Amino acid sequence: MSPRAASLLAFIAVAALLGGCRTSLRAPTQEPAPWDLGRQGRLAQAPRAVIRDYVRDLRWTSGLPSGYALPTRYPALTRRTKRWDDWLSLGASGAILAYGFAAFGSGDPARIENVGHAFKKSANGAALGVAALHVDPVGMLQFGTSAITTGFATDLLKTHVGKLRPNDRSDTTSFPSGHTASAFASASFLHTRYGPKVGVPAYLAASLTAASRVAAGQHFMDDVLGGASLAMMVNWLTVRPLRTPSGCREVDCCALGWRYEFSGGLSGASRNQIQVPLDTGTPIDIAAFDHGNGSAVYTAATLEWSPPGTPHQFAARLLPYDVQEVGTFAAPTSIGGITFPQAIDTRARYTANEFRLRYRRRIELSRAFHVRVGPQVSLVHQKVDFAQPGLRARGSTLAWQGGVHGFVGFEPWDHVLLWAEVDGLANLDSYVAELRAGIRITLDRAWDVGVGGLASRREIRGHDFENDFNYRALFVSVGHSFR
């Protein structure tokens, strides 16, 4: 498995598993299950009771000033004494991993692609089958709501974004990945509704589906990150746990220390100059290619942890970026030791996948103003691919960088945050400078939405090529906080 596919799998899996442990605020009930006809006594009451509980669970209650906060905690699969269902979950996880890694290890693109096809086809059946085994019609309705909403949103974005696939320039439905969205809709439902015994194997299958779509050349990383995030967000909005274990009862004591945010929008580059190899190739500005260009999508996913009662915050941030351009060279051009002739359509593909870790400390300046500052590190993997009929040249580089992060927040009204943040990263040969700003509106304790803009400037010099890249983006963001 490639490093970028492995990093994507790990990031999404951690965010999803943690997100499944979010807080659901609703009062517990000791009443028997409404669909239990033996206890209810009358057949006509069961459908009405199912609909009643379904509607009750969908109510937005996480912002209520009173009530109960019931964190969805389940027994760990790592406990020393295991039951049969623990071993069944671990066995299913092992079988899924064995199947996936055997396919990736073969190096056969068709076999790798079949991993995604297989898990996508089985995902919905697995979710409904587990719900049937639990005799859970409310869960079936919740899964239907989540899956249909995810599918509709995926198709809508595919139609209107119009992003080109990596290996098929005639197909403009690359973003977001439908296979990934379908697999994560089922996996996140199983984990949220029934806990990790079914959720862990399902998330492994969904993550391998995402990795297979990238490895088979059907999607870029931002496509599968968008599909997975969309499915998980819809699930967290529409699905509630079947059981609400005992735990923290008062709302005030249930601080939501975790937050997952996904940002997405459209971007444009004013300069994207590539030189392959370093110092000897011809500098090429692929942002100047002037026809046949696909949409460039900006995506970013951030997983934050703020220990309750402290000013500290830790975060992992995934920033995939790709763009495909078609243009012609005005003169013979040397790329990777290969000379490309002029006046022939040339496809240029550029990807930059970055992973950042940061720490920042909150400092209160006044009731409305606060800042956050701290260090961060970054690992960025960049690749370029130029192709003409019968000619192809590639280059790649991997760079570590360190730097600082700064954030300024202003809250003029309750639930409204105006913010700006800057990132500065550098090493001996490279640097990155980014400025982001926007507005965030808190809807309730668990959800927030926002809009913002980004300006980025980077210059990366690696062992294989040099990249001078300036781009801007406008985006919307959705954040989900959980415990």
Beginning-to-end CA distance, first to last residue:
32 Å
Roughly what percent helix?
25-40%
Number of discrete domains: 2
Which residues sit in consecutive blocks of at least 5 with pLDDT less than 50? Answer: 20-44, 60-77, 245-253
Percentage of β-strand residues: 35-45%
Shape, per Cα inertia axes? globular
Please explain how this structure is put together:
This protein has about 475 residues and is an alpha+beta fold. The protein has two domains: about 5-240, no CATH class; about 255-480, OMPT-like (Lipocalin, Beta Barrel). It contains nine helices and 15 strands. The strands form three sheets. A ten-stranded antiparallel barrel has the order 3-5-6-9-10-11-12-13-14-15. A two-stranded antiparallel ribbon has the order 1-2. A two-stranded antiparallel sheet has the order 7-8. The protein starts with a helix and ends with a strand.
Key terms:
single chain, alpha+beta, ten-stranded antiparallel β-barrel, Lipocalin, 483 residues, 15 strands
Summarize, please.
This protein is α+β, with helices and mostly antiparallel strands. 34% of the residues lie in helices and 36% in strands.
Topology (SSEs and partners):
Elements: H1 3-19, E1 23-24, H2 37-40, H3 45-58, E2 70-71, H4 84-106, H5 109-133, H6 137-161, H7 178-194, H8 196-215, H9 221-238, E3 258-275, E4 284-285, E5 297-305, E6 312-327, E7 333-335, E8 338-340, E9 346-364, E10 369-388, E11 391-413, E12 416-426, E13 431-442, E14 447-461, E15 466-482
Antiparallel strand pairs: 1-2, 3-4, 3-5, 3-15, 5-6, 6-9, 7-8, 9-10, 10-11, 11-12, 12-13, 13-14, 14-15
Helix pairs in contact: 1-8, 1-9, 3-6, 4-5, 4-8, 5-6, 5-7, 5-8, 6-7, 6-9, 7-8, 7-9, 8-9
